[in-house]
Amino acid sequence: MDPSELRRNVEESVQRTAVIDIHTHLYPASFGGLCRWGIDELLTYHYLVAELFRSAPVSPPQFWALTKPQQADLIWETLFVRNTPLSEATAGVVTVMTMLGLDPSQVNLKEARLYFASLNLDQHVERVLDLAKVSELVMTNDPFHPQERNLWEQGASCPERFHRALRLDPLLNDWGSTQALIAAQGFETGKQLSPQRLSETRRFLDQWIALLRPVYLAASLPFDFTYPDDSPRTTLLHGVVFPTCLQHGLPFAMMIGVARGTNPDLGEAGDSLGYADTAAVERICRENPGVRFLVTMLSRENQHALCVAARKFSNLLPFGCWWFLNNPSIVAEVTAERLELLGASFIPQHSDARILEQLLYKWAHSRRTIARVLFDSYLRLLDQGYRVTRQQIDRDVARMFSGNFRSWMGRPESN
Q1: Which contiguous run of DSSP H or E holds residue 21?
Q2: Whole-structure pTM over 0.85, yes or no?
Q3: Domain around 17
């Protein structure tokens, strides 16, 4: 196989292979307002809100006083008409519109709004998944969110392509407030964590695992997360979360590195990141060899240490380029680093999408970058005298796009 043929085979394989998106914040159409979609939602997502304030003479209070369509119009006028959409977030909207047959060079949103208003949402969800070549996805499901909790308690069901993940952020990051919510659901809890209250919290998780049937448990953790320490978080991880994962055979996903509320005036757009302690991940993996951990970290500076940790602990699976890492230059760097240290034994990307149509650009852009990095890796082998076949390429891509996750979940075969 010569280099030009190699490039063609790699690009075809990456573009054609379906992916399991292992971490999203998406919901099916049947979940009503929790399913966020359409041009106004895309444009008012916090990625673009943060950019707006760099280019428009509007204050946060003035912006938040606008209706959502007014906010979208202002962002469109500022970032797409008066400025060239060069950032990843704005270029992503351009990709979405182009993939849906809309003109991203329009001076207003009239055409886009008419298009989305004409759609059947159930059919649109399926079309977006098919266009993005996302065969299955994993939602983020919060038992402490009143609207979502009510849906599950009323017997909500999901399409087969939508898997559940039981999210534990309030439990681990704000026990003082969350224990009252658990108590309101009929469990004995309190601010002081006695053995009995730990047992009751495990029973609470057991109930939600039975209800949701999640594929993993998950939590987003701050950049200053340490383990062990004398906080309720460590007590809950050690006494509740890790034993529950072991009992039910469920992995635990840790997303580490957020700095919340760096600029509170910006709302969700005001969160930032910080360098985290990778040694805490190593201690957790060492002390819990029977639990499988999915880990992604938000700081670029943490990526090398996370790869090295994964070489030392076979119960650690790095995944994705999360949030501020989801830019082509950084995705390329991180993917190359992981290939060099871990071979194909990682998950290169997840979308973290909160708006349905974000799947289109996040996977289109990521596939393009991943293909480029894979080509460079295979070309190096070719130059060293190794014969690379299309069968090997397809095998490697399928492993990274779905096979590693299936194996980690204990589901080696497709549904």
Answers
A1: strand 19-21
A2: yes
A3: 3-408
